[in-house]
Amino acid sequence: MESKRPPPSALVDSYVVPGDIILDLSEMTNQTIKIGAGLRQDCDTIQATSAGMLRLSKPNKYWVESSHKSYIPSVEDTVLGVVVDIKPDVGTLVYARVVKANSIMNPELSCMDAMGKSTEFTDLKGGYMFDTSTGLSRMLLSSPTCPVLEALGKKLSFEIAVGMNGRVWVNAPSPSNVILVSNAIIKSESLSAIQQKVMVENLLQRVS
Amino acid sequence: MAMEHLRWRPTVNERDFIESALQSDLRVDGRRSFDFRRLDISFGREDGSSEVQLGETRVMGYVTAQLVPPYRDRDRPNEGTLAIFTEFSPMADPAFEPGRPGESAIELGRVIDRGLRESRAVDMESLCVVAGKYVWSVRVDLHILDNGGNLIDAANIAALAALSTFRRPECTVGGEDGQQVTVHDAEVRDPIPLTIHHLPIAVTFAYFGEGNIVVVDPTYKEEAVMGGRMTATVNSNGDVCAIQKAGGEGVMSSVIMQCLRIASVKAADVTSKIRTAVEKYATEKALKKVKRLPASMSQKTNVSDVTMVDKGDDKLGSQSVETLSDVQQISKDPSVVIEANDHEDAKPMLTESSTEVKTTSSSGAAVESDEAQEIRSPKSLKDAIKPKHKRKKRKDNRS
């Protein structure tokens, strides 16, 4: 076994498109790498199969993080769901956890956490829900807190629930604040951290 | 109705919020009640194609024309025709079924058709070539690419933008009987734009509450919540070309009058946007043409005009248009022919045996030329693998 660490791919944290060669395996011997979503092995190379950011979890896990409008459920994701077939509750919004997910059947949601207690998962009352992309919801859930939410949170008080499925629910005492927060979030998808802060400040100035 | 379940329904939260926010004069996307969303008009490479983006709604318009016998022989022998076709792609909205237009698809086509035709926006008489025999039939295809609400307004703008940039080939009438129609190629005579008298702009209003809350240009979500809708087609002169109010809540006549006043203001706005976009496209196109001229002069393509012989055949018009494109292809052929000749010269070299024959009678210089040929002519895999000195030896043995 070689003690030398495999050199990380030059493309880590940059944008890749399908067909991009991430790693050349012929130069790496006796090493294990793990590849996740959006990557595949083709002979001696690892290629991207979807467009997005290449991520590396040290020492050897690679995957591509992409943003989609549609969500493919996977177990243990927290999502925002809409009740469709229980008669009096049709149209109710719930914050829930995916417990079963496969490609054949509809996914199953639960409002209990893994310990069997219904702690944070519940139906959401009032407020406003809007759809974004999976990439944006991942950004909102990331820690440390993303710049938009931080900038908004300094000036306004609001409740927010973000599902991995791209749905975001916002509630605040006044409707104008709900609208402001939701529009700030929708606009922030393609902005850098500084741009996000500037955008939020501009929005806040316009309102006040 | 089978796909009805795929129609997006708002959650209780959204419905309540949108309604309560409107009570205090707020819209969920931060617009004021009578603001349109951002409007972008772009054009394709060819004349008569447009793409309109209104907020998240995207519509593509495409205009084509054909020479046909007049549709209503008896009463309108000297008028062309204009038809609107819509295509609702399931990509735009999962509720759209391919090949089975829903209620909204038919309504959209009709509203736009009515706005354009009944107001006589496009001059039909100028589309006549030979009265009672040949007229131009203009076809507008509207492809809905993304449904973000208010498809009617977006599709109407797309149709107008496409019609404004459309050019039909020029044709002249001649021959012994004065009935022979000659369609000129675009290279020979510049195609002619349609005569458009005015631009009828559709402005859609959504009604909430008991019809006393009015907003313009509703989004997808507002459309799902609204109680009623009205589309007023108005031009920039303030003439009302068409009104569509299909079902939904009743609205006071005073509200409708107010809506019409707002519509005419919005129509003036949109008209100027379309005009500037069309002008920008026209100047870009003109500039390109100026640059291209020297090249086309030197290459002098001899495009023959297509002459239509009167066979009294109903489908004659469409046939002749097809032959037109054939003629264009033929005219571009000379350059292709030259290339083909080159290929034939190179062909004998492709076979391995011939190159070997050359090298057997070789001095040093000949080997060099052989190398040069190797670069040019594709070799078999065997040659690529074999080291050079080995190959030489074999040739020596043979000689």
From TrEMBL, chain A:
<feature type="domain" description="K Homology">
    <location>
        <begin position="127"/>
        <end position="175"/>
    </location>
</feature>
<dbReference type="GO" id="GO:0071035">
    <property type="term" value="P:nuclear polyadenylation-dependent rRNA catabolic process"/>
</dbReference>
<dbReference type="GO" id="GO:0003723">
    <property type="term" value="F:RNA binding"/>
</dbReference>
<dbReference type="Pfam" id="PF21262">
    <property type="entry name" value="RRP40_S1"/>
</dbReference>
<keyword id="KW-0694">RNA-binding</keyword>
<protein>
    <recommendedName>
        <fullName>Ribosomal RNA-processing protein 40</fullName>
    </recommendedName>
</protein>
<dbReference type="InterPro" id="IPR012340">
    <property type="entry name" value="NA-bd_OB-fold"/>
</dbReference>
<dbReference type="InterPro" id="IPR026699">
    <property type="entry name" value="Exosome_RNA_bind1/RRP40/RRP4"/>
</dbReference>
<dbReference type="InterPro" id="IPR049469">
    <property type="entry name" value="RRP40_KH-I"/>
</dbReference>
<dbReference type="GO" id="GO:0000467">
    <property type="term" value="P:exonucleolytic trimming to generate mature 3'-end of 5.8S rRNA from tricistronic rRNA transcript (SSU-rRNA, 5.8S rRNA, LSU-rRNA)"/>
</dbReference>
<dbReference type="GO" id="GO:0034475">
    <property type="term" value="P:U4 snRNA 3'-end processing"/>
</dbReference>
<keyword id="KW-0271">Exosome</keyword>
<dbReference type="InterPro" id="IPR041054">
    <property type="entry name" value="Rrp40_N_euk"/>
</dbReference>
<dbReference type="GO" id="GO:0071034">
    <property type="term" value="P:CUT catabolic process"/>
</dbReference>
<dbReference type="GO" id="GO:0000177">
    <property type="term" value="C:cytoplasmic exosome (RNase complex)"/>
</dbReference>
<feature type="domain" description="Exosome complex exonuclease Rrp40 N-terminal">
    <location>
        <begin position="33"/>
        <end position="69"/>
    </location>
</feature>
<dbReference type="InterPro" id="IPR004088">
    <property type="entry name" value="KH_dom_type_1"/>
</dbReference>
<dbReference type="Pfam" id="PF15985">
    <property type="entry name" value="KH_6"/>
</dbReference>
<dbReference type="Pfam" id="PF18311">
    <property type="entry name" value="Rrp40_N"/>
</dbReference>
<dbReference type="InterPro" id="IPR036612">
    <property type="entry name" value="KH_dom_type_1_sf"/>
</dbReference>
<dbReference type="GO" id="GO:0071038">
    <property type="term" value="P:TRAMP-dependent tRNA surveillance pathway"/>
</dbReference>
<dbReference type="GO" id="GO:0000176">
    <property type="term" value="C:nuclear exosome (RNase complex)"/>
</dbReference>
TrEMBL record, chain B:
<dbReference type="GO" id="GO:0071028">
    <property type="term" value="P:nuclear mRNA surveillance"/>
</dbReference>
<dbReference type="GO" id="GO:0035925">
    <property type="term" value="F:mRNA 3'-UTR AU-rich region binding"/>
</dbReference>
<dbReference type="GO" id="GO:0016075">
    <property type="term" value="P:rRNA catabolic process"/>
</dbReference>
<dbReference type="InterPro" id="IPR001247">
    <property type="entry name" value="ExoRNase_PH_dom1"/>
</dbReference>
<feature type="region of interest" description="Disordered">
    <location>
        <begin position="341"/>
        <end position="399"/>
    </location>
</feature>
<dbReference type="InterPro" id="IPR020568">
    <property type="entry name" value="Ribosomal_Su5_D2-typ_SF"/>
</dbReference>
<dbReference type="GO" id="GO:0034473">
    <property type="term" value="P:U1 snRNA 3'-end processing"/>
</dbReference>
<dbReference type="InterPro" id="IPR033100">
    <property type="entry name" value="Rrp45"/>
</dbReference>
<protein>
    <recommendedName>
        <fullName>Protein ECERIFERUM 7</fullName>
    </recommendedName>
</protein>
<dbReference type="GO" id="GO:0034476">
    <property type="term" value="P:U5 snRNA 3'-end processing"/>
</dbReference>
<dbReference type="Pfam" id="PF01138">
    <property type="entry name" value="RNase_PH"/>
</dbReference>
<dbReference type="Pfam" id="PF03725">
    <property type="entry name" value="RNase_PH_C"/>
</dbReference>
<dbReference type="InterPro" id="IPR036345">
    <property type="entry name" value="ExoRNase_PH_dom2_sf"/>
</dbReference>
<dbReference type="InterPro" id="IPR050590">
    <property type="entry name" value="Exosome_comp_Rrp42_subfam"/>
</dbReference>
<dbReference type="GO" id="GO:0000467">
    <property type="term" value="P:exonucleolytic trimming to generate mature 3'-end of 5.8S rRNA from tricistronic rRNA transcript (SSU-rRNA, 5.8S rRNA, LSU-rRNA)"/>
</dbReference>
<dbReference type="InterPro" id="IPR027408">
    <property type="entry name" value="PNPase/RNase_PH_dom_sf"/>
</dbReference>
<dbReference type="GO" id="GO:0071038">
    <property type="term" value="P:TRAMP-dependent tRNA surveillance pathway"/>
</dbReference>
<dbReference type="GO" id="GO:0034475">
    <property type="term" value="P:U4 snRNA 3'-end processing"/>
</dbReference>
<feature type="compositionally biased region" description="Basic residues">
    <location>
        <begin position="387"/>
        <end position="399"/>
    </location>
</feature>
<dbReference type="GO" id="GO:0071035">
    <property type="term" value="P:nuclear polyadenylation-dependent rRNA catabolic process"/>
</dbReference>
<comment type="similarity">
    <text>Belongs to the RNase PH family.</text>
</comment>
<dbReference type="GO" id="GO:0000176">
    <property type="term" value="C:nuclear exosome (RNase complex)"/>
</dbReference>
